[in-house]
Amino acid sequence: MGQIIEKEINGYPHIIYQHPQQENNSVDLSAEYLCRTKSRRSIREFSNKEVPREVIENIIKTAATSPSGANKQPWIFCAVSSPEIKSKIKAAAEKEEKINYDQRMSEEWKQDLEPLATTWQKPYLEKAPWLIIVFKQIFTYSSSGEKRNHYYVNESVGIACGLLISAIHHAGLVTLTHTPSPMNFLSEILDRPDNERPYLLLPVGFPENSIYVPKIHKKPFQEVAQFY
Ligand code: IYR
Questions:
Q1: Which of the residues 3, 68, 175, 228 has the least number of beta carbons within 10 Å of its own beta carbon?
Q2: Within the chain, which residues score under 70 in pLDDT?
Q3: How many whole angstroms separate alpha carbon 151 and alpha carbon 124?
Q4: What is the reported pLDDT for 223?
Q5: Model-level pTM?
Q6: Which domain holds residue 151?
Q7: Residue 87, domain member (yes or no)
Q8: How confident is the model at residue 3, as a pLDDT?
């Protein structure tokens, strides 16, 4: 008898689940993914080499596979390649960052950032071929205009951004998780609706030739994992 692949549970259609990789090689697969992932670094110096829109679409589609509270998918990924819009974003971000570095950040915070050599200037916001601005949707509107709840919005969008960053790296590109603060200027420049809040800004592209990154280390495994 053939396998039933569809059935109703709770009155809703369900389909049988099959993982595409059914061979028993999880050790090799996990080691391979670790190896590929370890080479990821946050990059602040971008080449202006073009990145095809299809790559950006694939990266966003990958992020959009993410799990989310009640599968509400409370996110939108805005991809900007327009030089005019990138310039507006750079100007607004630098205005806020200058105030941050001059007035809002504590001495301890500035000291913590010294190894990263960051400043209020953000040339990558113009130079990178793409900016992806992730907005969280704190609620949504039904087709009849009623407010509908979203759940675990920060967790959901955070997980989706993790997948996004991984997809960017695995496409041979680089990014930076940039969080200008405050960042409501992004809602204004991109004319986003009132149910959305900016969450993360990621310049995406190829790295500039011969660049240096800080020699920093991830915590040793013993410090980040505890087995019981
Ligand atoms: N947002 C500022 C400062 C900054 C803060 C942290 I925490 C970093 O890890 C890096 C930078 C900036 O982008 O310069």
A1: 228
A2: 1-2
A3: 33
A4: 98
A5: 0.96
A6: 43-208
A7: yes
A8: 77
Q: What is residue 1's predicted lDDT score, i.e. its pLDDT?
A: 56
Provide the CB-side half-sphere exposure for 202 (13 A, CA). 28
Q: What CATH code is carried by the domain that includes residue 171?
A: 3.40.109.10
**Residue 21 confidence (pLDDT):** 79
Domain membership of residue 28 (yes or no) is no
The alpha carbon torsion through 43, 35, 62, 127 (nearest 10 deg) reads 20
Whole-angstrom distance, CA of residue 150 vs CA of residue 137: 8
Q: List Cβ neighbours of 114 (8 Å cut-off, separation of 6 or more).
A: none
Residue 66: per-residue pLDDT: 98
Cα of 90 vs centre of ligand 1, distance in Å, is: 15
Pocket test for ligand 1, best of 113, 131, 216 (most atoms within 8 A of CB): 113
Identify the CA nearest to 205 among candidates 134, 131, 135, 133. Answer: 131
